[in-house]
Amino acid sequence: MTKINMRDMLAKYDKKKLTIATVCSHSSLQIFNGAKKEGFRTLGISVGEKKKLYDAFPLGKPDDFFIVKNYKEILDYTDELQEKNVIIIPHGSFVEYLGPSKFMNLALPTFGNKLVLDWESNRKKERIWLEGAGLTMPQEIKNPKDIDKPVIVKYHGAKGGKGFFVAKTYEEFQKRIEKNKQYTIQEFVMGTRYYIHYFYSPIQNNAYKLSKGSLQLLSMDRRDETTIDEVQRLGSIAELEELGIHPTFVVTGNIPIVMRESLLPKVFEMGEVVVEKSLEIFGGIIGSFCLETVVTEDLEFKVFEISARIVAGTNPYISGSPYSELIQPGLSTGRRIAQEIKYANKKNLLCEILS
Ligand code: AMP
Predict the structure, then answer these.
(1) Cα-to-chain-centroid distance, residue 185
(2) By three-state DSSP, how is residue 50 classified?
(3) In the predicted model, what is the mean pLDDT of the chain?
(4) Cβ atoms within 10 A of the Cβ of 87, count?
């Protein structure tokens, strides 16, 4: 979607009645809660009735539901949704349920820059972006015969780490690999994981200043992944593997965490270069994004992934995090998104943060 038809579309909107909408999953409770706190109407797009669940959380319940038979149908209802002055807040499940190409063609004002999807979902382009920005990523092993240290094998398009496996030798790799699938082999980085939640505003200059706009650190989490994170309750991984029990990396939840304060300058430097490079190559990553990192024993960050929108790891912080508390008490990522939209609307800058 071009900026021109975005402008046309927004021209028809009643700016006093903007409605924050998202798919009822992932981080929707937080998004609706944050939008309500900022005075927006909210709309939950859902397959089938989800009222019963949301009734359990009145402060995270959307004002209205928009029921579809399947998420791909959303494209058929864009006129109706435009009449409701809807602004879409995409999250990981939203993009996954709709499919990347339908998401790209979604004719609804969407928070963030959709062009990022191409750079984020293509592992080669992601590497060009992040390494080009100066970040260190885990080494990629092109030929499995070169495996001479622990590696993690990632299937392309696998959801939530499903099917990923660890191998220490070429023989182990051969035993486990599903040859009909596309995969990437990465050095398994030894260290501790931090999933860092940033917010970049191209239109506000009241935080860590960049060449254009400013950057905030809102929170960080560690993912809880089954079975790897608790498998040791049954025995060592080596023991279990001998019995044919292999650990898996499927995300089931998120754990709040803070980092030693001396690492924070590096955290901001990483966020800064990622944003500056994004401005250069596709016009900028807008709003929330997450760098998925491992910190090694030499206190070096290796970044294994970027998520270019609100991540579920922000959910432990609906009432604020130890970092966002120092920006505004009780500030969640969901609320920060709503604030950005409110500010842009007031200053007539919505086109700068929507696509
Ligand atoms: P991803 O789908 O790339 O986010 O990876 C799923 C999970 O696998 C992560 O949350 C980490 O626990 C683990 N992981 C991914 N890449 C690496 C790596 N290079 N080294 C160590 N662990 C990794």
Answers:
(1) 22
(2) coil
(3) 95
(4) 27
- Contact at 8 Å (CB) between 86 and 108? yes
Q: Are 272 and 239 in contact (CB under 8 A)?
A: no
Quote the tokens at residue 145: 């015969």
Token representation of residue 97: 């349920």
Neighbours of 326 (CB within 10 A): 12
Tokens of 255: 């754990």
Which residues sit opposite 301 in a β-bridge?
A: 295
- Tell me which of 122, 189, 304, 306 to substitute to probe ligand 1's pocket, judged by most ligand atoms within 8 Å of the beta carbon: 304
Say yes or no: CB of residue 247 within 6 Å of ligand 1: no
Q: How far apart are CA 239 and CA 335, in angstroms?
A: 46
**Spatial separation of the C-alpha atoms in residues 329 and 323, rounded to whole Å:** 10
Q: pTM, whole model, 2 decimals?
A: 0.96
Backbone angles phi, psi at 316, to 5 degrees: -65, -10
Atom of ligand 1 nearest to the CA of 138: 19
Digit-coded pLDDT (tens) for 62-87: 999 999 999 999 999 999 999 999 99
Rounded mean pLDDT of 32-58? 95
Pairing of strands 64-68, 86-88: unpaired
Which tokens belong to 89? 């807040």
* CA separation for the pair 102, 181 (Å, rounded): 24
| Residue 249 in contact with ligand 1 by CB distance below 6 A | yes
Residue 236 makes CB contacts below 8 A (sequence gap 6+) with none
Nearest Cα to Cα of residue 166 among 109, 240, 248, 95: 248
- Cα(216)–Cα(214) distance, integer angstroms: 7
Percent of the chain with pLDDT over 90: 89
To the nearest 10 degrees (0 to 180), the angle between helices 264-282 and 123-132 is: 120
SS3 state of residue 216: strand
CA quadruple 189, 192, 195, 198: dihedral sign: negative
Q: Rounded CA gap, 140 and 154, in Å?
A: 11
Tell whether the torsion through CA atoms of 166, 169, 175 and 180 is positive or negative. positive
User: Could you give the CA distance from residue 85 to residue 61 in angstroms, rounded to a whole number?
Assistant: 19
